[in-house]
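Hi everyone, sorry if this is the wrong subforum. Our group has a chain we'd like a structural model of before ordering constructs, and none of us has done structure prediction before. Sequence below.
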Amino acid sequence: MEEEIQEEKLLVPEETYISCGVEIGTQQKTAHMERFIERVRNDGLYIIDIKKTDERIRYAAKLLARYQPDKVMVAGVRHYARKPITKMCEICGFIAAPGRFLPGTLTNPLSQNYKEIDIMVVNDPIGDRQAMNEAIKVGIPIIALCDTNNETRFVDLIIPTNNKGRKSLALVYWLLTREILKARGDISSDEEFTYSVEDFEATL
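Answer:
Right subforum, don't worry. Here is the predicted structure as tokens:
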């Protein structure tokens, strides 16, 4: 009974998180991510605590909803992150930076790609090191999707998740988008969010 009550509190049923592989980490763990790890599998893969992922998605959405949309940038070089990032930015009005992050985007006012932003979301602190470094340099807070192998000392809000999987990324960005719209008051219920997870899923 207690497990059923807990499951009702999740943004989506636990099975949905699991079927998308959100909880599947890597075979490495950092001290920074240890508190988000539930267990280690027999094959050495670390398993992320889905309840903590769910909780952090809510926090991140409420935080992002407080910013002017055109002052939020979402960056992700990973192939499977590009479509969900672009979709979230299209719906929420954020600045999308999929693919290679062009040097000087946040630090060089003379660059044609220069943007002044107030907060940044990155898909992976390892792959998105250029975006991270520029955000750190100019003092912009960072929300990051972090897997078990990530170092997080410069991340202001960690969303612990599988930040490499196609389905995992689609679900996490779909949930973030839905919860941002709810926090803004743009929609009042889950039913009013007309996009599906598949709308956020990268093609193979």
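For your construct planning: Residues 2-200 form a domain with the Rossmann fold fold (CATH 3.40.50.10490). The first helix runs from residue 2 to 9.
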